[in-house]
Amino acid sequence: MTAADFLTRGPDWSLSPERQQVSKFDDLGVFVTRQGKQQHLELNVSGAKCGACMAKIENGVRALEGVSESRLNLSTGRFNVTWSGALPASKIAETIEGLGYGVGTVSDSDADEARRKEERGLLIAMGVAAFAAANIMLLSVSVWGDVGEMGGRTRQILHAISGIIAFPAIAFSGRPFFRSAWNVLRRGRANMDVPISLAVTLAFGVSVAETIRGGEHAYFDASVMLLFFLLIGRFLEARVRRRAGAAANDLLAMSNRAVTRLDKSGEATRVNAAAIAEGDMILLSQGERAVVDLELCDDICELDESLVTGETAPRSVSAGARIYAGSVNIAQPVRAKALSRASNSLLADISRMLEAGEQRRSSYRYIADKAVSLYVPFVHTTALLTFTGWLIAGAGIREALLIAISTLIITCPCALALAAPVAHVVAAGKLFSNGIFLKSGDALERLASVDHIVLDKTGTLSVGQPRVAEQTDRDLLADAALLARASSHPLSRAIVAAACPGPIAPGVREIPGQGLEATIDGAVWRLGSAAWAGGEDAAGTVRGLYLRQGNAEPRVIHFEDEIIPGTQDGLRTLTSRGYELEILSGDTADRVSKVASELGIGTFTAGVSPKEKTDRLEALRSEGHKVLMVGDGLNDAGALAMAHAAVAPGTAVDLSQSASDAVYAGGIGALPLLLTVARRTKAVMLQNFWFAALYNLVAIPIAVTGHATPLVAAIAMSLSSMAVSLNALRLASIRKGT
Prior knowledge:
- By secondary structure, this protein is an alpha+beta fold.
- The protein has five domains: about 10-105, Alpha-Beta Plaits (2-Layer Sandwich), CATH 3.30.70; about 110-245 and about 365-420 and about 705-725, no CATH class; about 255-350, Calcium-transporting ATPase, cytoplasmic transduction domain A (Distorted Sandwich), CATH 2.70.150; about 435-465 and about 565-665, 3-Layer(aba) Sandwich (Rossmann fold); about 465-560, Calcium-transporting ATPase, cytoplasmic domain N, CATH 3.40.1110.
- About 50% of the residues lie in helices and about 15% in strands.
- The protein has 24 helices and 28 strands.
- The strands form five sheets. A seven-stranded mixed β-sheet has the order 16-28-27-26-17-24-25, sandwiched between helices.
- Helix 6 (about 195-210) runs antiparallel to helix 7, helix 8 (about 245-255) runs antiparallel to helix 10 and helix 11 (about 365-390) packs antiparallel against helix 12.
- The two termini are about 45 Å apart.
């Protein structure tokens, strides 16, 4: 099997000998790459925040003549387009800009810094809005509590002070919405930020006019509070997007390393992995990780493939064997031939799986997004109809406008804005106190719909470190330890751990890929593979080491996986709740079947590659299942990203944690609580949204008929916000095991 078998992909643009600079972006250094008649361009797009934005950009560019591929990664902002013909590259950039989005060069460090800068800006804006809202509310309470003793002049002064506080706060904190709205409006388009900006601006403008004329009503508090609540969601969204792109960046850093290339004369040169071409001779030093797929040229090599297969037991390979990118050479330096460029390696394939998974999750719409997409147009249409209706009824422009603004204010989506975030915060706190850390903003919603759970074996169900079988003879263990103490091999360390400290045989030699040898009392002792020690395991099916002492019959020391404590109870609970379980592992069939039997899991598959894992998930998805993937290795990263939801243990590699929605400490026993909290949280969110809808059914008629005084609006908004918050607090009472 070749790395190309892992994914179906398009042309390898890294092979392109020709790079043509785009004239419009000369000062930015953007390049077009060519291969045959096709051209490829990669840009960084800013301002895209949801699945609708992604679809608008992809469809807009795809409509251009000659474009065959148009793909935006919403998490990273990377936009890839492939086309043929005479279409200028600058036209593509102009099209994206014409849709209201920013276009720039691709730079990992710059993109990450830009996302961090966006987060900081939103956080500061949110803080300013919160400060202003709190102070304006203090002044507004005095006006609302007036029982007829406050003079008109005093009320006007309080409104004026509120306006003085609100103006700089709105001007500063509203910039993310105002900029976005202006960018699309000046191109004759609209997005969700347009009605938001309109509501804030109108409310402030009418409030200023009412303050100047000494009117009773002003809406400075509602304008600033609306911005504050919207900024909370915008900040959380930005943070989730940045973290979602971390997995791909982590993998890129892993594969973007220096490699030792040997020329025909044997001279070694350190070059970047991107410079390696198919057929180049590579020197893989001891402890070095392969960053391209290789074919071993020397006689033997011992590999740590834990990042690739998830199995910690080293594997010995002989000349002609394939060494996948991500494997570590743990023996002597070896020579190997590059089978592909870095862009065609296993690491690159997993990177593409991660990007595909992030793309799919980016299109997942939050419950809140669905509610807002219906709510905002409805409210603004209602306000417009209210204004028109009162004009038709004979009211003046000022009176009709005041009632329309009152409709916008009293239906200020405080309850709607709090419905999901407050439930998420309470649930995240509950999980955090139980050693589970959420990493994705929509994780709980997707986890709540899971019905099928796919589990990796090593590091997820079993400890992953080899352990000497309990039934092993103690004398055999003591004899083997005489040789094993001289080696750092994982299996040797397991023998030493079981045998406890003791002496080391003199003159122990380690033969790479074979085992250990020493002369004791005139007899040659060997500890190692069956072929080395003369054991009967030509097929290599026994997970163990053979010890031969002189001419005596070789004896085998077996190793086994230790099940992580709490795993059996956790899986039993999941099964009792109706979840379907199965194991997908890169380990051998006998080891996987033994663990599956011990845990009572009837469905399992052994010896699977990263691509085969994602294929299985796709098959389950096509059957209508919502799959939760649990894994810890680099080989699981692609499957974790492609699953409907994913979690990883705290011991997982960084890349797998980055590709997951949640990380748990301890064993798989944490899953029942996580899934219970997810289901309850989704239920609470839906209850909150129904309450917000009911609130608006009551509030809108009051506003439309002109009875929405500031006091009524304030009480209504406060009670609605309090109701959804108290409902969400019920999540804190969930007990472990329920």
